[in-house]
Structures are given as C-alpha cells and as structure tokens.
Amino acid sequence: MARKQTLTALALICCSAAASADRLLLEDGETHVTLQGVHQCGDPVDLAVDADDPDLFTAHTRQMQGIIDAAGAALAFECDRLAEIRVEGRLKGLRDPVYRAAASPANDWRIIASQSINDQAEAGENLAPRPEPGYPAATPADDGGNGFELVDLRPGLTVNTTREIIADRFGETPDYDIVSGTMTLDAGGCPTGYDWRMPAPAPEAGWKCLSTRFTDQRDTRLYHIELIQVIRGSDTHPLIQRLVDNFGPPAEQWTAPANQYSEGFAIEQLSWGEAVSHGQGSGRAMRQLEAAVYRRDGVLVTVVTLQDPSLRPGWSAPPPIGGGDLQL
What is the pTM for the complete model shown? Predict the structure, then answer.
C-alpha cells in the first residue's frame, strides 16, 4: 500500500496472528480509528472511524483513502495476508453510521463506498447539525431547506475537501492562494484570472474557468463558487433550457442590455434560491444561485455562481424576497 499515510499510528500492532478485541488503532486530532473485534490473519478486518467532520464521510474524500492506507500499513505488521478492510464511519453526535466502505487487493486497496453521508442528504434524512459555523445541515426537500451544489461543491466545505473534489471532477489539481483565500482552476486554455465582464481577452471554445473563495475565519470555509464555460454555438436557448432542466424553474429570469463584450446580443440571466445580497442599482438582490448566458465572437459563454456570504463575518442578510428548496 504505497499511498501517502495521513494518520498517526498510536501503537504498532504486535506480531501475533490474532488481534485482541476493540482497540484504538489510529488517531489524528478528533478522528479515531478503532479495530473492531477479533480477527484471524487472512480474515476481513473491520474498522470503525469516529470523527466530527462530515466532509470525511462524503463519497469524494481522499482523507478516507489515507485512513485505509495508514490502517493497512499498521495491520501489515501483524499480518501480511490482509484480505479486505471494511470501514464503518460514525459522525460524532449521531446514533447510526453515516458511511460504509471497503478496500481489498483486488482493487489495489482503493476505497469503494457503499454508503456515504451524501446518500442521507439526498434522501432528506435528518443528520443533526454540527456546531461549527457554516455547514448546512441536511433537511427534507419540502421543509424550506436549500441543498445547492455546483460541480459537486457547496458552500461550507473545507479547503482540503474542495481541492479534492475539484481534482476528482476535472482531473487537475487547482491552485490555492492562502493570502487571498482563493482557489482557481484554469482548464481548456482558460487564461489565469479571466474576468467575463471585461472586453479582453475574447473567450474561446473549451475554456473552463473555476474560481472559489474562502472565508478568512480561523475555520476556513468555502462561500463563493464561480464556473465559466465556453462552448461553440450561436443560440442561447438550448443552454437556458438545460439550466432550467437541471436546476428547476428560476425564481427570476430577465434579459440584461447588450454591451461591448456580448457582440450586441443581450445577456440572458436567471437566479434561484434565497436572496444573499442587497440590491444595487436596479434594486434586484442577488440570489444563492445565478446564471448568465450570452453570445460572443462565435461562441456561447455560460457563467454560473453559487454563494453563501452568510459564512463571512459581519454579513447582514437582505430583506427576504422569497426562497426555494432547489437541489442542483
């Protein structure tokens, strides 16, 4: 098991063929890994992972892979014939497990989850909110809760989890600037720092420009996501319909006047969810999810923004103008 080990072994397991009953195997901060029950060398091994971070139990985490790698390395001191490692994940404060997975030599010890915290969230199960600020508790779809995601990202994620999800989704590792609190990925030729509101440079088909921003709190959390995509085409209507099909009917839809960077064509704009900023100019408040689609230089530009500024210190909510329970 050559992958990087991320947890600290509390004690190397002695070299007997059989392990004793439940015992603490690994520890990293508030994450504890316990070897469950008695196992003979060559039998499947059961591990319980207790943690207070829900992100550890998502379907896209590399942290859990690190736990498997570290546990396997520790167990190898006892038995060099490991057949399978089975994991049960328990989020502190909850009664039932929220995660189950397994790894074996057949898949090069790659962790495969059969249950994750995402499943409960999608099913609308109550997962009891954790005490840290900014993490949205999962809520049933009909009780007014919002469960927004954009390319598998959602406000409230940590820096490490955001980086892992982006790398898994796009196949490239994003750049993170700890000073500005921004993480970016420029794929398909997208120039660094591209701003779709500026007249130059002209967009080119294939660009994917992802920018995320994090709070400046001690517990750094994702609060703003912007994804720009450029494709070949001249008709905005199919893209608008795809947005509606994916995200549901928008709370608002309007046409912004043409300007110097939209080839004289109007910019089609849509928004979903609750208001998250005070209106300026026209008085329209920005909502949780915003999309803009326009034509320029023979290509179509789509900009989708998802944000939750309430995670930032000093933020004050605008007057309510309605909301929704949309799932992206």
Answer: 0.53
